[in-house]
Amino acid sequence: MTRDLGGVLDAVLAAIVVVDRSLTIEFVNSAACRMLESSQESLEGMALEQLHGPAHPALRLAREVLASARAASQSEVPIERRFEDALEVDLSVSPLFDTEGDDEPSGVVLVMRDRTLQKDREEWADERERFDAFGQIAAGIAHEVKNPLGGIRGAAEIIGSRSGDHKTKSAADLVVREVDRITSLVDGLMVFTHGGDLAFESFNIHRVLDDVLTLLDHDPLGDEADVLRLYDPSIPDLTGDPRRLTQVFLNLTRNALQAMHEDSESADRQKTLTITTRMTLDYRLSTPGHSSLPTVLISISDTGPGIPDDVQGQLGTPFFTTRDGGTGLGLAVSKQWVARHGGVLRIESALGEGTTVRVALPVEQPGTEGATRHHGEIR
Ligand SMILES: Nc1ncnc2c1ncn2[C@@H]1O[C@H](COP(=O)(O)OP(=O)(O)OP(=O)(O)O)[C@@H](O)[C@H]1O
Ligand SMILES: [Mg+2]
């Protein structure tokens, strides 16, 4: 059987770029087009220098390999992109010879493997392990704490109703209120156990975001900031659990408003909350066999104080908070719900400029094809 070589190279997940001796691009495969955000037509015939500038390691390595006729490689090479986040790739460059025994290569082939993918997978695996361990503790605590709480609440109600003394009554009320608060906190922890169910249905993401903004209208913090909605109207309905996602975006937008509110150093700076949606074919969410998955990117940006580097590493750890009165569950819970939709939540922040949280959600859940169905376990 003979195979079409171009088709074979297009099936490879690594980006392949072939350049001739003058460092002009002769061939790119599909993965290279996705990685470099361009089409085969516009890339082929372009000078390699034009792609990433004269100082880029890809160009330097290609020159070296042409001169030495020996393969070379470099890891963690940054690839800046116009639309998507920058990538880090492992780059290897090999000489190409027209005929066997040639001394001088007629060109080189550059192979770029996305390390971000590998890193993301490692991070997700780490995170999942952490959440699993945390989930076990949470389930144990929930079990041990909730039973006695029920008894405490009942006893406090009896004391409150039988006492004629105002002070005792209000103390009993306080006990009931605080018990309810602990109960809802413990219920919140259940998301880290495998218990929290997802009810999948077809829904409109913009409606979810609008609902969140309506809820924020009732929050005094909501009045302090301008809200900018940059919605891409071409986004189709998604399959997911709109109630859980409402909770996610409420957590994220509240964090943004709180951060801008607490930003005392720049009280005169314009407070703007920007919500942007757009479609992408983010192959980093892809599963083997599907090279790209239609994905919706939702970003929540604020003009708050930003997050210091030492804090950034701890974000999303349950109970990590820097706010008085914060529980530190907002981000952890949000990450968990997004992950269970097969999505990714990333936080980018620049001190003094603000914070952007990006949520990538696949349009379809595997196997649902837009149909309404209930799903307990998506991991
Ligand atoms: N948009 C933001 N700007 C600056 N810091 C942020 C932002 N979002 C989150 N943070 C930081 O991350 C921490 C954790 O956020 P998270 O939402 O998990 O908990 P919290 O807001 O402190 O409490 P809660 O459980 O009530 O949400 C915050 O305390 C804050 O330091
Ligand atoms: Mg929060």
Task: Walk me through what this model shows.
- This protein is an alpha+beta fold and 379 residues long.
- It has two domains: 5-114, PAS domain (Beta-Lactamase), CATH 3.30.450.20; 197-379, Histidine kinase-like ATPase, C-terminal domain (Heat Shock Protein 90), CATH 3.30.565.
- The protein contains eleven helices and 13 strands.
- The chain has helices at residues 5-11, 30-36, 40-43, 48-52, 57-68, 115-162, 166-189, 205-217, 242-262, 309-312, 330-340, and strands at residues 15-20, 25-28, 72-79, 87-96, 107-114, 198-203, 226-230, 238-240, 272-281, 294-302, 344-350, 354-362, 373-375.
- The strands form three sheets. It has a five-stranded antiparallel β-sheet. A five-stranded mixed β-sheet has the order 7-9-10-12-11.
- A hairpin with a 7-residue loop joins strand 3 (72-79) and strand 4 (87-96).
- The chain is elongated, with a radius of gyration of 26 Å.
- The structure holds adenosine-5'-triphosphate and magnesium ion.
Q: What ligands can be seen in this structure?
A: adenosine-5'-triphosphate, magnesium ion
Following the backbone from N to C, one meets helices and strands in this order, namely HEEHHHHEEEHHEHEEHEEHHEEE
Gyration radius, rounded: 26 Å
**Structural class computed from helices and strand pairing:** alpha+beta
- CATH fold-level assignment of the largest domain: Heat Shock Protein 90
The major pleated sheet works out as:
5 strands, antiparallel
CATH class of the largest domain: Alpha Beta
In CATH terms, the superfamily of the largest domain is Histidine kinase-like ATPase, C-terminal domain
Second-tier CATH architecture of the largest domain: 2-Layer Sandwich
